[in-house]
Write a structure and sequence with these properties.
D-Maltodextrin-Binding Protein, domain 2, alpha/beta
Length: about 300
């Protein structure tokens, strides 16, 4: 009451000053409340935009072929989510993802992918697309295998004649597929290593460069070969064996295993890749008019 009476008897200018102070205090309180609310909601504006990216652990074949240069701008344009690709061999990509160094995994070694999920590192695996492997060799074809459709028989002949064969030797999906063929042929390439059988420990492009330089045979995925610019006179000598089928799969890294995984953004990428739009984007990629990957997410 005294305060009211004091205010009533205070000169007009003083009363206005007191009201102004109270308004300033109220505004300051509202500003602090708004700041606290924004902090609770997380980063917004430029900070949030900078954080809208995912890391895709994938293979050199998908990167070197130019596939990602073709399809990722479509996804980013639709969603605003940037995809940063780490292109290594499948084995290394799986190890990276298992360590939590990625949000999504897209590789081509089905058994290893299914084990990745079974071990709790991935949420679920889905087929994405396929193409095939081929064996390329020098024009002279010293092992006389050109035109064979039995890859195992061709590799057996190459081993028997001891003509140079260059392998990635990097635990990639391509390397794993090659080793399965040698095992089926009953050839101990570990014992032959350093002789007619050479391992580069490198990606597909580097291995092809070495193979061409050595006039050696090389097993490669067709997409990388189609995009490869240093073929010399090398050509495809073996193709068409069902054992050369090359399936790719996609997996969201398990956020329960690695809380840093951007599960929501990663799931949006997986969903897009498996959608009709994403599958059509993959199908539309070609080199010199030839389609290199064939989507099969629908089975």
């Amino acid at each position: 009451m005294r305060a009211f009476l004091a205010l009533a008897t205070t000169p007009t200018a003083a009363r206005r000053s007191m009201r102004g102070s109270r308004i300033l205090i109220l505004l300051a309180f509202l500003a602090r409340a708004a700041a606290a609310t924004l902090a609770a909601l997380g980063p917004t504006g430029p900070a949030a935009a900078q954080d809208r990216f995912i890391v895709l652990q994938s293979t050199t074949s998908t990167q070197n072929s130019g596939l990602y240069d073709h399809i990722l701008p479509m996804f980013t344009g639709k969603t605003g989510i940037e995809v940063r690709v780490v292109a290594v061999g499948t084995g290394q990509a799986i190890r990276n993802a298992a360590n939590g160094d990625g949000d999504v995994l897209l590789v081509h070694s089905r058994a290893a992918e299914e084990q990745f999920v079974a071990d709790g590192y991935g949420v679920a695996r889905f087929d994405v697309m396929y193409n095939d492997f081929v064996i390329v060799g020098p024009p002279s074809d010293p092992a006389d295998v050109a035109g064979m459709t039995d890859a195992v028989a061709a590799l057996t002949t190459i081993a028997e004649t001891e003509v140079p064969f260059v392998s990635r030797g990097d635990d990639s999906g391509t390397n794993q597929a090659e080793l399965r063929l040698w095992e089926e042929a009953g050839i101990d390439v570990e014992a032959a290593s350093g002789g007619w059988y050479r391992e580069t420990g490198s990606g597909m492009g580097a291995t092809l460069n070495i193979g061409v330089g050595m006039s050696a045979y090389v097993l490669t995925d067709r997409a990388t070969w189609s995009s490869f610019g240093n073929r010399g006179h090398h050509r495809i000598v073996i193709e068409g064996d069902p054992r050369l089928f090359n399936q790719y799969g996609i997996i969201l890294v398990n956020p329960q295993r690695h809380p840093n995984v951007k599960a929501e953004l990663g799931r949006r990428f997986v969903d897009w890749i498996l959608s009709e739009e994403g599958q059509a984007a993959i199908a539309s990629f070609n080199v010199d008019g030839r389609q290199l990957f064939f989507p099969n997410a629908a089975g």
